[in-house]
Amino acid sequence: MILSQRRFSLPSGFSFEAIVLGCYLVRDAFGGVMRYYTNVLHVDALWFTPDLLAMLCLVQFVRHCIIRNGSTFAALVLLQVLLSLVLGYFMLGTFNALSSSFKMMLPVFVGFCFCDSNLGSYKRLLAVIAVTFYLSLVGVLISKFWVMPWVGFKYEAFGATREAGRLWWAFSADQRISGFAADNTMAAFFILISFVLTSIRKSVFWCILFGSIALYAVDLTTSKTTMGVLGFYLGLLVIVRMIPEHERFPAVRGFALWSYAAILVPFFLILLADGTMVGEHNLLYSILDRINNSWQLPFVYLSQLMPVGIITGCGAGCFNYPQQLFSSLAPYWVPVDNFYIGTYLQFGLPFVAFMWVVFRSSFQVTDVYKLSLIFVNNLFTITVLNYGPATGLLMIALGFSEAFSYRSSGFTRGAIPGTARQRLVTGTA
User: Fold this and answer.
1) Closest Cα partner for 380 from 204, 185, 179?
2) Could you give the CA distance from residue 132 to residue 308 in angstroms, rounded to a whole number?
3) Predicted confidence (pLDDT) at residue 286 exceeds the cutoff of 60
4) What is the CB neighbour count within 10 angstroms for residue 261?
5) Beta bridge partners of residue 274, listed in sequence order
6) Which of 127, 161, 277, 401 is deepest in the core (most CB within 10 A)?
7) Where do the domains of the chain lie?
8) φ and ψ at 341, to 5 degrees?
């Protein structure tokens, strides 16, 4: 059976998961614009269009990954998410928190639906991503000289009031610019992720030119994490282009696999600098605050609120924005600035098993786009939770999607050896 025939496509030739990803991307990358004008035009409900479409991707995940691919792993992951939603409801205690947690998890299944796909085959989607990159740059550069009308705009979601495009300054008195996005961190993230996905098929000259512009724009947003990851990626990209062509893909895969070592960085830093204190104006203040508070306090609170949660997790939404906005446990909320720590808090030891399967499946990935996402996301999420915006979580799930592919499912059943299955997929993608 040819895999390209097994994916769900619309009659127009568009792939449904690509449309949903594109909707999330446009909504979140231009979140400041979208929130402001949907409110002004009294069409606030349009903001949730990608979430409604993502519900259909949940159905597609069941149909494609569980039923057609016969993936027991996919079934277990879905069951674990549902159980965590129930556990999170009992932990957080409100229906709004449950609704927010369910909405929070939907982008995961959109990303997983790319399991048997090569992202390079989505030409229209890549064009949307490229336009997003250019417009994100323009938005940040314009914001340097002109205050956008949505700066300071407040909106309500699920009964909680939030502020889009808040204009504020770092302790160095540098203005934190958000461009068309809802805040400066989101603006920097979309410049990073759209540059990564656009640069793969571009010339070295384009990469250096627009990579330099992107670094300047990210510097304007004052996002140090994004600046470091973007600079590191750009440097490695140029190095990879300089080596012989037959060595490039093994190099990219090697970088992606080694990037999983970044999961251990917080634990190493805690052992190295736990308890170290500096003043707020010290350049190390941000990372030391994560070491002393963000990465450790949640476990202290969890041991008080739900001791067994250290093993089982405390449910989807805990120590995440559903708890912060919709729960009586909001006083115990701590910003968890690391994706893997934040996800472990919610899902417990099953998440460790999940990551082991994901890591093993990464050895079989043949899509350079997915490998690039794995590398960048693993570095970026050392100091960022990345559950918001939704596109951030979606991109992580897309990188992990190989674990649900027909190739991975067949290999775990012993149906076809990995190498043979790899050739089949490569030949029919």
Assistant:
1) 185
2) 43
3) yes
4) 10
5) none
6) 401
7) 16-264+343-428
8) -65, -45
Which letter, b or e, does each residue of 31-67 get, where b requires 16 or more Cβ atoms within 10 Å of its Cβ? bbbbbbebbeeeeeeebeebbebbebbbebbeebbbe
**In the predicted structure, residue 101 carries a pLDDT above the cut 70:** yes
Burial of 239 (0-12, 13-18, 19+ CB in 10 A): exposed
Q: Is the pTM of this model over 0.85?
A: yes
**If you write DSSP's letter for every residue of 303-349 in order, what string do you get?**
HHH-TTHHHH---TTTTSHHHHHH-TTGGG------HHHHHHHHH-H
What DSSP element (H or E) covers 388?
none
Q: Is the CB of residue 152 less than 8 Å from the CB of residue 196?
A: no
Q: Are strands 153-157 and 168-169 parallel, antiparallel or unpaired?
A: unpaired
Of 279, 377, 127, the closest CA to residue 288 belongs to: 279
- pLDDT surpassing 80 at residue 358: yes
Query: 372 or 170: whose pLDDT is higher?
Result: 372
Higher pLDDT, 159 or 118: 118
Measured CA to CA in angstroms, residue 195 lies from 111, 215, 221, 410 at distances of 19, 10, 16, 34
More confident residue, 421 or 357: 357
Amino acid at site 418: G
The first and second tokens of residue 340, run together, are: 């893997």
Burial class (CB in 10 A: 0-12, 13-18, 19+), 369: buried
CA torsion, ordered 390, 393, 394, 396, to nearest 10 deg: 160
Which ranges of 146-305 would DSSP assign to H, the alpha helix? Answer: 184-199, 204-221, 224-242, 245-258, 265-273, 285-289, 297-305
Q: What is the C-alpha separation between 135 and 127, in angstroms, rounded?
A: 12
Q: Which amino acid is at 226?
A: T
| Residue 395 φ/ψ region, left for φ over 0, alpha for ψ in the -120 to 50 degree band, beta for the rest | alpha
- Backbone angle region of 216, left / alpha / beta, with phi > 0 → left and psi within -120 to 50 → alpha: alpha
| Token duo for residue 407 | 């190739």
Q: Are 398 and 390 in contact (CB under 8 A)?
A: no
Lowest mean pLDDT among 197-211, 272-286, 375-389: 272-286
Closest of 256, 269, 212 to residue 363, by C-alpha: 256
Which of 322, 29, 25, 40 lies closest to 157 in space, CA to CA?
Answer: 322
